[in-house]
Amino acid sequence: MPYKDDQLHEEKVFKDPVHRYVHVQDRVIWDLIATPEFQRLRRIKQLGTSYLTFHGAEHSRFNHSLGVYEIVRRIIGNFENRDRWNNDERLLCLCAALLHDLGHGPFSHSFEKVFKLDHEHFTQQIILGDTHIHTILEQVGPGFSQKVADVIDKTYEDKLVVSLISSQIDADRMDYLQRDAYFTGVSYGHFDMERILRVMRPIEDQVVVKSSGMHAVEDYIMSRYQMYWQVYFHPVTRSAEVILSKILHRAKYLYEHDYTFKLEPFHFISFFNENVGLSDYLKLDESIVFYYFQLWQEEDDVILSDLCERFMNRRLFKYIEFNPNKQMNEWVELYRLFRETGIDPDYYLVVDSSSDLPYDFYRPGEEEERLPIHLLMPDGNLKELSRQSDIVESISGKKRTDHKLYFPKDVLRKLDDSAAKQRIMQLLHLEQHWKGAENHAD
Amino acid sequence: MPYKDDQLHEEKVFKDPVHRYVHVQDRVIWDLIATPEFQRLRRIKQLGTSYLTFHGAEHSRFNHSLGVYEIVRRIIGNFENRDRWNNDERLLCLCAALLHDLGHGPFSHSFEKVFKLDHEHFTQQIILGDTHIHTILEQVGPGFSQKVADVIDKTYEDKLVVSLISSQIDADRMDYLQRDAYFTGVSYGHFDMERILRVMRPIEDQVVVKSSGMHAVEDYIMSRYQMYWQVYFHPVTRSAEVILSKILHRAKYLYEHDYTFKLEPFHFISFFNENVGLSDYLKLDESIVFYYFQLWQEEDDVILSDLCERFMNRRLFKYIEFNPNKQMNEWVELYRLFRETGIDPDYYLVVDSSSDLPYDFYRPGEEEERLPIHLLMPDGNLKELSRQSDIVESISGKKRTDHKLYFPKDVLRKLDDSAAKQRIMQLLHLEQHWKGAENHAD
Amino acid sequence: MPYKDDQLHEEKVFKDPVHRYVHVQDRVIWDLIATPEFQRLRRIKQLGTSYLTFHGAEHSRFNHSLGVYEIVRRIIGNFENRDRWNNDERLLCLCAALLHDLGHGPFSHSFEKVFKLDHEHFTQQIILGDTHIHTILEQVGPGFSQKVADVIDKTYEDKLVVSLISSQIDADRMDYLQRDAYFTGVSYGHFDMERILRVMRPIEDQVVVKSSGMHAVEDYIMSRYQMYWQVYFHPVTRSAEVILSKILHRAKYLYEHDYTFKLEPFHFISFFNENVGLSDYLKLDESIVFYYFQLWQEEDDVILSDLCERFMNRRLFKYIEFNPNKQMNEWVELYRLFRETGIDPDYYLVVDSSSDLPYDFYRPGEEEERLPIHLLMPDGNLKELSRQSDIVESISGKKRTDHKLYFPKDVLRKLDDSAAKQRIMQLLHLEQHWKGAENHAD
Amino acid sequence: MPYKDDQLHEEKVFKDPVHRYVHVQDRVIWDLIATPEFQRLRRIKQLGTSYLTFHGAEHSRFNHSLGVYEIVRRIIGNFENRDRWNNDERLLCLCAALLHDLGHGPFSHSFEKVFKLDHEHFTQQIILGDTHIHTILEQVGPGFSQKVADVIDKTYEDKLVVSLISSQIDADRMDYLQRDAYFTGVSYGHFDMERILRVMRPIEDQVVVKSSGMHAVEDYIMSRYQMYWQVYFHPVTRSAEVILSKILHRAKYLYEHDYTFKLEPFHFISFFNENVGLSDYLKLDESIVFYYFQLWQEEDDVILSDLCERFMNRRLFKYIEFNPNKQMNEWVELYRLFRETGIDPDYYLVVDSSSDLPYDFYRPGEEEERLPIHLLMPDGNLKELSRQSDIVESISGKKRTDHKLYFPKDVLRKLDDSAAKQRIMQLLHLEQHWKGAENHAD
């Protein structure tokens, strides 16, 4: 049964704390939401380890995916009578918006790095492979799933469609900024989305913004800037992320060195071997990860059990500002001293760096190239945002990196007194003023 | 090292979306939060299966526990200079508030019913047993843990202290109404807590409310009423709860009938045997439950695997209004017809009833007796709320029960045509107008 | 130039704190807003003397009128494809919504009572008389202004149209509850209007509400109940209203007794003579009233100057609960004692009563008959709300009246000691516990 | 009766939509609020002509003054146990906060410019002159009123006290940003004040902010930047301001040229003569101004009556971007053409410029020198904000000026066709795309 134009008898709604209601008029959207692949997103947190810093941040990617869909639905609703807009692509946009994060796994960032995975690859596989999602999409029309996959992959020919879910001011970003602000409770993350949606116009290959809405866009950019530094790169969150990565590294290492786990970690085997199939990937949600972490707290390997116990019970590492590029000597010395005192520095002395580019204009050839934001001026011309806005210009293209050194303060404190201990304490400023993971969100 | 009066060097805060900030000044509170027993509450949802109806309702009991603590902290702050108030009990109140829900397990309601458990029993055990919590409480002073346990058990001698966390208008209820409204996104659940806190007064055995604040209290009572019927007893949530219970029943049944699970469900064994120790209890958080439900989707027993697949993928039962007391004949007939068509009615034809008493005055001898709300009149006398408030009087003491019959509509539809099928469809009004689980929050 | 279907080239918006934006698409609406008669509403407060109790309540009737228009616009937007709805009446509804309060003057309540006026009469006159409003309406089509007047007068033949701005759950009430709550800052007044608008359906002669939205309607009814008792009938607001009425009475009395005002009160002459023409009526906005009250503070008549000084500087009367029907003897005695001590009881001893009917079902023959709220049941039948809702039933049709006695406590205190003074103090409970106007919003 | 330490028997509260509640504990504060001089602030709008752009902006200076008081009260509450803080100055701070805007008159900006007044001068006079305010302040202690005046005048010796109400991040600014955002309904103006208050510390001569709160301060600075350009300098508001100024100019001109007004404008005489005494000043509130503007609509002088009619009925001037410094030739030509076509350019062709310095560090010798914001670093040192914050640095010290040319488009349109008219239309771009006052807030 072909799906096209198959409207639900009566519109359905989801109560949503961020957008008040998410409206569904199309049966295909309804059916996509009901698939196991989409329901699985309920078991994956939107913000990974952030809940250990901001206790409200327990919301899932399911939440966010509905939100992105809803924003695209509203944008398109405003476009209906515009010349440039081809309403045949309505359903394509809605599906791509809903499914764009489908390939995310638990704690994606760490898993991808440790096991050399790419969630975008799995998004493509879920849409094109042997899944409920695929079956439903193909009922819209043959080849429809490929189109959806192309939009998400940014290779779809109509770049206007792509820009709705992937640009400097797309539905994805507008949803997550507001949603993550709502659930963490921070006061950043607010901007006048209703105003932005009203002034968005489809022009050629992109969605542009009427210049009368420039200040609302400035607010959005600033909001993004604040959210990055206040929430996404919060050092306590990164402390948990560091421990998580080390757990995965250790488990892989043990597996590779023929360690015998008390219970065979069969969900992880293909990850350790770096040949994860779609079916294995879909099974590994956060509850499975937590299950193993709980078990591993009782493993004989002291590093694995300690790290798991730390993660599960939020006994995180402390940190200091530390730039290994500039502090090479201290780094080498600390590494040696840790080894000397019996604390494995490969697991317990970790540098983590974060960086963000709050707003960037187009630079051909870069990997993560995103379309810049263009303003539609009263005379009909387009101007790139940072040329009109002082504030945006001021933060445009400025990459800021923040390095921190993480370590288990509690362990160091319990070391027997020795010259090594004293020197460690000195190098890590442990006698002085310092901020630590115990500060939660402060 | 005794804890008493041991203030943190600098106040710590948690960013909280409901109360903006949760403030911690006492080291003992800080240390209690850091225990494994308390951190475990992060892995137990506050609202059980409600997230399947309201996707925002993914917040944990950890969240709520901090919130109750914060409200009690604010109430006590207002009491400081009142005659009746004994500030020596400050820390006792704070600890009891923080820990009052400590014994909750995953999906408490269903687990308690199926396995005959009582979360309050485990709260007592965690506070008094061999736990980190217990150790920290005893450092405040010998016997302090017993006092905390008594307050939570409502047996503590100073009933004023008890009433802060257990009365018709306690910190527990004030937090959960606001918090659950915030995370679900419903517009009910708002009342002027700041006003209520300002007019609370400690008098004799209870916290009373100055009569000038009566309307704020009315709003609170109405808010509670609406939250019960709109959120807590939502029929879709109950559909998930029904399936969950049936999974537990089936697994227990299979275990008792020597069924061989593909993986020994060792976390569940003591539950099946109904002799759960503290250590086993603490291990069973939601991620463990989800782990088994995922595995059991692939069990050979078709009932267990079907129910688990339904729960994990939100393929819920539909429902109709149905009062088995009044519709005994239909019930018997349906039961027989289900059996006849090969659908086990013990798992697939389930009546669920819910009821609530929105506000009740004291009735001696009842099990769940809670202190009524008293108003402090300008002349210094106390009056019971429902005598002063028309609105409260109107809903006071009225028990309302709502019965629904749950069944798998999808299975019934796929039955071969037969007289039995036709009769089932007729009895369940499946040809007519009906509301079903597909309505999500609508 | 006929107006019909004359859309603005580009939609205009007003930023509105309650509805976020008010959208205007029709040139006629735009032009009506720009008339002097409509702009005059900026100089008339929505809540009269309430700003003396709630300092935020300084918003004007201009605000509210735009809000009612916007709500009707949204309701109609949802009706567009419904059978019952005749979209030819769209512009009629919008105009009637915008203009329904056009005839209000400053502090309407007091002015109407003292000078025997009726703001609805003036609304009709402004729409049908020689005004900018009339000219614009007639450009829509001949006779259009009469239609608008009829809708506001509730005599228009299509009662569905009438019910949008005048029923138990009309746009007027939905706007003022939310708006007055917003500006006063009280926490009552919130209900889920978006939900209510979604479930409204035009059926026969009225707008009904799908039964699935019953709880949102309950919330609205409760909100109205709370706003009446917490805001609209606040005793401090009524104290100011009492003084205002007495000023008008006194000025009229003086005029009738050939008193010579320092400046001829020419704006008031036709009011004193009770033959107010449209032109005089439109000139008398709040700033004119304040101008005279300022001047009159310096009049020789001590009663007039004292009352004006009280009103302008918020030196209000205090009050006690007092029911003259039941306390006739005290009343007579107080009246006599006031006279005896030289305080004119006709101006300084005032009983004020207020009452409200929070929700009422239809009672044929009553003056203020408003259509009851009907629920549209799943089976297509209509049921009156109070039959389905316990809460509404409980407050339905219950008239509650509240009597208070107002008097100038400051004057009484300064009386020379005497038996009369002592008896007055006793009768007014001035030695005891009492609440007074100094409590502002508390 | 000395006031010091005279607490109210029971704390009083005002319901405030921005800060929820304003709390009053001191009798002197209560009594100051009740004075005629303070109550007068109810009749002066906080944002002057902004209500003609944002209809919600009808709030008075009374509102704002209570808000500033409340913020200072909260700041001081946090300071109580800090070394640097001298609690003897508590009452002084509270009084200065409450009274700092006392000297404002209606539409201060225009009145000050046209009549060469200074509201700060009148604030001093009200505090030190023969007023109720003065009497009450002196009851606190002899000389107390002079101290309050000095704090407001920034000459008080303890600069810490001064900085609470007059610095780059004082209570004044924090209140008006939030309050004006609330009443206009714009989404700018939000920042985390609770956080800022928590991290404020009294150090030497100023209030500094702990560096951990830097991002909240950035948000505040950005909020201020956005409010200036979106609200305070809105071109439609300025259009009304332009007309208002021209009315005052014309009335003064007529008075000076012996024009006979129909009613002697006795409230204005001392303003025309530029020798305004305190008593005259206090009488001139907004209702008086509106009274005259209404009368003047019927004056024989066509310029005065036209301008008054425009202001009262919001028939504002349109505008184009226009920098007279760079467009001298056009300016001269337009001026000549207006004169030629009989439209007096002195009243109908007006350039208005606005500018703002969003955040500035200290530059000795400048008139409006305000203390820069200092961050308290973890090592105890102070650093100036813009050195730590990229965003603030980017907008720091950058003066931006915006020039617009205002004119009555409606009049120009009605001119007879002529070369002059054509040239005017061309110079003012009236055939093209242009934005005008009809856009309200868009």
UniProtKB/TrEMBL annotation, chains A, B, C, D:
Residues 61-177 form the HD domain. SMART domains: HDc. PANTHER family: DEOXYNUCLEOSIDE TRIPHOSPHATE TRIPHOSPHOHYDROLASE, DEOXYNUCLEOSIDE TRIPHOSPHATE TRIPHOSPHOHYDROLASE SAMHD1. This is HD domain-containing protein.
